[in-house]
Give the backbone structure.
Amino acid sequence: MTNNPALKTPSHIFAGQLRRDYFITEKGEPVLDVFGGNLPYAAVGLRIWDSALSPGLMARVGEDYPQAWLDDLDQKGFDIRGIHILPGELDLRSFYVYTDKVNRVTGDPIKHFSRLGLPFPKVLFGYRANLDVIDDRTTLAPGSLRRADLPPAYAGAAAAHLCPLDYMTHSLMPAVFRQDGFSTITLDPSPGYMIPAFWNDIPAIITGLTAFIPAQDDLRNLFEGRSDDLWEMAEAVAAYGCEYVVVKRGKRGQMLYDSVGKKRWEIPAYPVNLVNPTGAGDAFCGGFLAGYRRTYDPLESVLHGNISAAIVAEGADPFFALDVLPGLASARLDSLRQSVRKI
């Protein structure tokens, strides 16, 4: 693992999760124990735009997490000094099933393997799906990030993105980044707290963000019983003190609300030859951060994110996007600009 104190401070920091993924494809084929998590997809979304960048990664894993996967991140140019290896084991398994190329469901793996007549893998014994689990408001979980997880080597970075994480992490870490002088902070909220029960807690998370980047379904869940209008929702959360709100809508693209200029845009998704949608939303956030630090233009930032998501969705794993043809992202960016619609 990288531990060279002479390494430069990374300019961009990503805080998220590293996971061990187990899933069943739309063809009913099991894929067991592969590298996953929102963190690598978000960081790759940034690297698509500048392969020379070495973004700093923050996550918590146990001693049982495959060291080879961490070494691979290091070898591919990611700064892993912010990955905290906890003593003992930490269950980072994720299980899901693709119902088609786009949609996936979670649930009890025993039921799905039985339905398909497949032998149940021993590596999934004891797995419990976190269905409809509400985040804890007061207690840090073992996997929650905290102040001590930000390495001194990352102090002085310019920008940070928080991938979907638990409420406690999202309520603590933006303030930590601000205290360390980060000028750009973006956040993708987690379904575990984007619900009416957390209505009064959301403003504290949003205040001071450069961009709040929820998925459409999460935003609708938060506003259940209050509004059905996505633009109204975006304007309401921006009023808490966030410069930009970007609503991710999957194959329908994104909606951008600029609270500074009081402007609205709709951006269609770039058409892709879809291989695997896993991580596309996280890659969008990485691309958004890259675009913002390049241009400080929110619309250009969304366009960058849109292209990052498209490229990642055309590969089977997060690292596919690092090997695409030079110039592909920029060419697609020029094309997508013609499809933007100002509301």
